[in-house]
Amino acid sequence: MTETDSRENGERQGIQSVEMAMRVLLALETGGGALSLSAIAQASGMQPSKVHRYLVSLGRIGLTSQDPASGLYDFGAAMRRMGAESLRRTNEVAVASGHAMQLRDRTGHSVNLAVWGDRGPIVVSWAYGTRPLPLTVRVGATLPLLTSSVGQVFLAHLPESLTDEVLGGELRGKEAEWTSERLAATRAQVREEGHVVTHSGVIPGIVSVAAPVFAANDPLPLAVSVVLPESLATAEHLAEVTGELHDTVAAASHELGYLS
Questions:
Q1: How far is 225 from 144, CA to CA, in rounded Å?
Q2: Residue ranges in the chain assigned as alpha helix (H)
Q3: Could you write out the DSSP letters of every residue in 148-207?
Q4: How many other C-beta atoms can be found within 10 angstroms of the C-beta atom of residue 211?
Q5: For 165, how many CA atoms within 13 A lie in the half-sphere containing its CB?
Q6: Distance between CA atoms of residues 246 and 231, nearest Å
Q7: For residue 255, with 0-12 CB atoms within 10 Å meaning exposed, 13-18 middle and 19 or more buried, which class applies?
């Protein structure tokens, strides 16, 4: 065996050791709480004696800890610090925008991403599709709460204390149309179905489907919407687009550390 082969084998062995340690950490993650040695061994598919050696090493650097009273293992202080720092560094808009672009490519329709601002939902990203639309949306535009699909996503998922001021302004003169019962029913429907569909809500002849993206370190969701011409929004195609949207927001939320 040459020196190069020996060095490469050593590097592979070192990487394998890291992967084995990650199996122990992933077992703790999926366990949802402190676990016994036998439970970690079963979840990781490793022998208890081997798992114990990894736990000793991981414990020395603070990635795991053991409760002296119960003997159960859990994440250590260093792991908690690393997790918090990782979440702090995550750019939710960049992650969600990447998934939104993929959604545009899969469906061919225009896709936008919005965040909550002081005066309502703000468009922070707009990717035009291959189907022409009779509108131009600029980044920074504010969308209405009541009539846009994106707005209704925020209406349903944000605390009312955040939306009340914006909602109050939109309700002036529309109290008879948007009763408290209708608002409550709208919120409940959006939460139950996981998405909103509006027909000519903001622009005549336009259908918009929106759904929320959640992040583990941010109580405020983002909203992704697909925009398509009414002429293309058959029941079958709308169901297909909605399915793609659900897959997109689920993948983005997962990457952002959200556990549904």
A1: 14
A2: 3-31, 37-44, 48-60, 77-89, 92-107, 149-157, 160-171, 180-193, 235-255
A3: SHHHHHHHHHS-HHHHHHHHHHHHTT-TTTS-HHHHHHHHHHHHHHS-EEEESSSSTTEE
A4: 26
A5: 7
A6: 22
A7: middle
Nearby residues of 83 by Cβ (< 8 Å), 6 or more positions away: 75
Decide: residue 260, CB within 10 A, 0-12 exposed, 13-18 middle, 19+ buried: exposed
Q: How far apart are CA 39 and CA 142, in angstroms?
A: 51
Question: Residues 257, 258, 259, CA angle at the centre, nearest 5°?
Answer: 115
Instruction: Tell me how far apart the alpha carbons of residues 140 and 120 are, in angstroms, rounded to a whole number.
Output: 11
Q: Give the angle 249-183-135 at the CA atoms, nearest 5°.
A: 55
pLDDT digits (tens, 9 = 90+) for 155-172: 999 999 999 999 999 999
Instruction: Evaluate whether 194 touches 242 at the Cβ level (below 8 Å).
Output: no
Looking at the chain, how many residues does it have?
A: 260
Q: Which two tokens stand for residue 206?
A: 């336009």
- Per-residue pLDDT tens for 168-209? 999 998 888 899 999 999 999 999 999 999 998 777 888 999
Please return the burial class of 98, using the count of CB atoms within 10 Å of its CB with bins 0-12, 13-18 and 19+. Answer: middle
3-state secondary structure of 117: strand
pTM check: above 0.85: no
